[in-house]
UniProtKB/TrEMBL annotation:
Transmembrane segments: none annotated. It holds the Pfam family Methyltransf_19. It comes from Amycolatopsis antarctica. SUPFAM superfamilies: S-adenosyl-L-methionine-dependent methyltransferases (SSF53335). It comes from the Bacteria. This is S-adenosyl methyltransferase.
Amino acid sequence: MNHSTNATANDIPRWPTPDFLRFEQPNTARIADWAAGDSHNTAVDRFFGEQVAILLPVRDIVRHNVAFATDVLHHALDHGVRQVLVLGCGMPTGPIWRHQATLAQPGIRAVYVDYDPVVTAACTLARQQHPNPASEILTADLRDPDTVLASTAVRTTLDLAQPVLLLATAVLHHVPDQHKPADILARYRDALVPGSYLAVSHLTTPDKPEDHLRLSAALNLYCSIDQPLTDRSRRALNHWLSGLDPVPVGHHNDPFLHCVAARVPDADARDR
């Protein structure tokens, strides 16, 4: 197969892509990179991140997210899955990028999706450290699953007739309710065959009133930079993967982050 360095989805996304090339404005991907302790960020990202950190334990949230993604990835690989589709891969400090040596092993295929061209450019450079000819970095909007799934990157890299690990960690809380994130995830879920895995981590509504106030203040900060976040209840997030087999991976939840993973059951199990 002939894989390009960076692919573009076949069709124009249905929603406009924010201008992430404006480095004078804080950016969620770079803020997350700062929280992870890396350097793919600017002074404005660091300043904004420090404001958020006054309200939320952002580094703990990142640590829990990384631990969750690590557990799910190794669980899926240990159970024979050799294909990975990462939605909202983020900067090279994202959870999945910590395992590039593993994902570059022969026989493993991967597609990394992000709609920020700065992010995908950084990921393209980072991938050179662990080259894998059976991987693609796709610049596309995950909110348009039909375009992502029909893209050349996905069609030529992944075999959707075989099990896939779909990772959507710390990304769907960037999708507002009006874009129907549950329906978006359901469309990806419908494209997966039995034996596939789904993993979602998401900002969640905390139980304690004082934590709820802190979260609300932090969400207001993100609204101030026109990159809003949406928290959702644990019950709603669990419902997104209802009907699937829960995956016995370690739980790395904290008051502000909910993690849930599941396996698409075999056809005979679903018929029983």
